[in-house]
Specification:
By secondary structure, this protein is of the alpha/beta class. The chain has four domains: about 120 residues, GIY-YIG endonuclease (3-Layer(aba) Sandwich), CATH 3.40.1440.60; about 180 residues, P-loop containing nucleotide triphosphate hydrolases (Rossmann fold, 3-Layer(aba) Sandwich); about 180 residues, Rossmann fold; about 90 residues, Ribosomal protein S10 (Alpha-Beta Plaits), CATH 3.30.70. It is built from 17 helices and 28 strands. Helix 1 packs across helix 2 and helix 16 crosses helix 17. Adenosine-5'-diphosphate binds next to helix 5.
Length: about 675
């Protein structure tokens, strides 16, 4: 019998030329098929790889080629659909296909230790479901019905933008769409992507409650490795027909994917900030296309990328323009001009509104997008400010732990008693964070029961659930919190929402700052008046005349998006151009920028048509964890030409003669931030 060889995907760090695909010999009676996970020797180690192909020949010399040692044939092979999708993602984001494939598997299935494996396989296939209360399906209203029909209007692939404010009934449309798809074919499966699920236990309960006969599994960062493996396997084997998960779930292996839903599609957490810097929303669309199934993107404030696709007619617009529950009304937005007041306090009319809400027995939600007590402490004599020793940012004063914390790297420092620079004893906290607001609330409303919800106070999914539970139970009068309180929580008794310090984002130079602020404020505002209460939303701002507030008061996302898109078009900014960054870091800025300059020269030498190469610059946060960071931006009006350029550039950088030592670099495609 002739020899057989397998092309195996291996998780090799960095961007190995060749993409991390290696040939191994298959022993004579080896049962390995394409898609099987196998154990192979790699140097002195044993590692798990994935069979990507099998052939009769290899270019590796006979004395060099090593053999496959074990096949995990107790789990059916990964599908061709999955392998192709991984191949696409690796190619699009210019990464090795090996690291992309292995990185998409739960740790458990990447571990070669086989003994542990066999013993746990059976327990891994057992899913204990918590009993949940059945949630009956309400009948859809006209708008919802129309949306549902349009999702399935065309057989096969389509993208629909389900556009509606919080409470307009988007989730209800998702649930009906799921129901329809599952009823059609017993093998059908649904992927529902959500941002940071640990913050939305209500959604999970709603899905489980609606589909009591189904195995619903979740995937998110709060799961243990075994839980994660269990969810993954259940989806892979088709036992679970509904997967609700955060961005990594887009790489799950399905038996028969029939519908893809992306809730809050504009959410920045869909973009991975390290490793394969993918956009789960973009990949979700691609995966729907691969599978010829509908994709639904839902949001009250779609990303401009998505909105531009709607305008082009590429995505169908399904608008829910009313709140689903008739008695609930859209909150009124009131701007409180604090341009002449001290920013750290509640304005008088806000105080009065809080008094009134509390006296009516309503809950109050105070939103401030910054945790800690104050963003910085400073010396009144010489102007010294607290900074991180390892990063180029300030350190945030945390009063509860009496420390200075770097929010970039997590380093903590003791609060100095005297100014480290001039010895002056008077150090002051400048600016406000959640802890300071909590203190101010205790001062003004000593009777009120206050709960602070931020990442310092509420760290786990369980803690979040407990915190939100106490809000629902009415054990809290005033909630003060960050972004964490903005997302999909259905607070039924909140009568007043107060937004502090929203302006910080308006003066930022990030192109997407305005878009994010609008999304956040709409989301926060949506927390008010969800049930029968008429909600009131007060935003303290120093720029009451800013157009963003006009659009927000008018509840007019579309006008807002038009204005922004117009600006982007004029500036030739995304989505009207396609960008990529080369990110580099080393222990010295000079070396980092030196590398980027050479990379720039290499880029220019490629002479790619319609690709503009900028000059290297230090990153916004130049130093992070002692690494000096820089970046080089490239742009093209064509995605395809950008891609061709990036492939060539990447290859040239990998094979650069006398490479700059000590520099780590990576390419980021479609960066969310510059
Ligand atoms: P969204 O996802 O847009 O925030 P939801 O689907 O959560 O909106 O709907 C908001 C509220 O209205 C929920 O309590 C939901 O149960 C209810 N609801 C949604 N659609 C209907 C309907 N057609 N009839 C009655 N209640 C509905
Ligand atoms: Zn000083
Ligand atoms: Zn730091």
């Amino acid at each position: 019998m002739s020899e057989r060889y397998a092309q195996i995907l291996l998780d090799l760090p960095g961007m190995v030329a060749g993409g991390g695909v290696f040939d191994y010999r298959l022993p004579e009676d080896c049962v390995a098929q394409v898609g099987h996970r196998v154990v192979v020797p790699l140097g002195p180690r044993k590692v798990v790889g994935i069979v990507a192909g099998i052939s009769d020949t290899t270019e590796v010399p006979a004395n060099k080629v090593r053999g496959v040692q074990h096949v995990f044939d107790d789990v059916r092979p990964l599908s061709l659909e999955w392998l192709r999708f991984i191949g696409f993602a690796a190619d699009y984001y210019v990464r090795g296909v090996g690291e992309t494939a292995l990185g998409a598997l739960p740790q458990f299935f990447r571990t070669p230790a086989r003994a542990r494996y066999d013993a746990s396989m059976r327990s891994l296939r057992t899913i204990k479901s918590r009993a949940v209360r059945a949630v009956p399906a309400p009948e859809l209203n006209q708008e919802q019905k129309a949306a549902l029909e349009r999702i399935f209007e065309h057989p096969g692939f389509s993208v629909s933008m389900l556009f509606g404010v919080t409470g307009s009934g988007k989730t209800e449309v998702y649930l009906h769409a799921i129901e329809r798809v599952l009823a059609k074919d017993p093998a059908n499966q649904v992927l529902m992507l959500v941002p940071e699920i640990n913050l939305t236990p209500q959604l999970e309960a709603r899905v489980r409650g609606r589909f009591q006969d189904e195995t619903v599994v979740t995937m998110h960062s709060d799961l243990t490795p075994v839980q994660r493996a269990r969810s993954w396997l259940a989806v892979h084997e088709g036992r679970a027909r509904i997967l609700v998960g955060t961005r990594l779930s887009v790489f799950a292996s399905f038996h028969k994917l029939a519908l893809v839903l992306v809730d809050e599609e504009h959410d920045p957490s869909y973009k991975a900030g390290e490793g394969l810097r993918f956009s789960a929303r973009d990949l979700a669309v691609k995966r729907s296309q691969d599978n010829s199934v509908p994709c639904v993107l839902g949001s009250a404030t779609p990303s401009l990328e998505t909105w531009a696709q709607v305008k082009r007619g590429a995505y169908a617009l399904l608008a829910l323009r009313h709140r689903a529950v008739q008695s609930a009304r859209l909150p009124r937005l009131e701007l409180v001009d604090v341009s002449r007041a001290r920013p750290s306090v509640f304005a008088p009319q806000v105080k009065q509104a809080v008094d009134e809400a509390l006296s009516r027995g309503e809950q109050v939600l105070v939103f401030i997008n910054r945790r800690g007590y104050a963003p910085v402490i400073s010396c009144t004599a010489c102007g010294w400010v607290s900074r991180c020793l390892h990063c180029s940012g300030f350190t945030v004063f945390h009063k509860t732990s009496a420390s200075l914390v770097c929010h970039h790297c997590g380093s903590t420092y003791r609060v100095p008693e005297h100014c480290p620079s001039c010895g002056n004893a008077e150090l002051v906290a400048v600016g406000v964070g959640t802890q300071r607001i909590e203190e101010a609330i205790a001062h003004y409303w000593p009777e009120a029961r206050v709960l602070r919800i931020d990442r310092d106070n509420v760290r786990t999914k369980n803690a979040a659930e407990a915190a939100f539970e106490s809000v629902h139970a009415g054990e809290v009068d005033i909630v003060v919190g960050t972004q964490m309180i903005a997302k999909g929580h259905d607070f039924k008794r909140v009568g007043l929402v107060v937004v502090l310090n929203a302006d910080a984002q308006l003066v930022s130079h990030d192109v997407r700052a305005e878009e994010r602020l609008f999304a956040t404020l709409m989301q926060v505002a949506g927390r008010a008046g969800r049930d029968k209460l008429e909600g009131r939303v007060m935003v303290q701002t120093r720029f009451p005349g800013h157009p963003i507030y006009e659009d927000m008061k008018a509840n007019d996302y579309e006008r807002f998006a038009e204005r922004l898109l117009q600006g982007r078009r004029e500036a030739m900014a995304p989505p009207f151009t396609h960008q990529a960054l080369l990110l580099a870091q080393s222990s010295s800025l000079e070396r980092t920028l030196g590398f980027l300059k050479r990379a720039q020269a290499i880029a220019m030498a490629l002479d790619a048509p319609d690709v503009f190469v900028y000059d290297p610059v230090p990153m916004q946060l130049m130093r992070l964890k002692d690494a000096e960071r820089g970046q080089l931006l490239i742009e093209s009006s064509s995605r395809a030409r950008r891609h061709a350029f990036l492939k060539a550039w990447n290859e040239a950088l990998l094979t650069m003669p006398d490479p700059v030592s000590g520099v780590a670099w990576t390419i980021e495609v479609d960066p969310a931030q510059l």
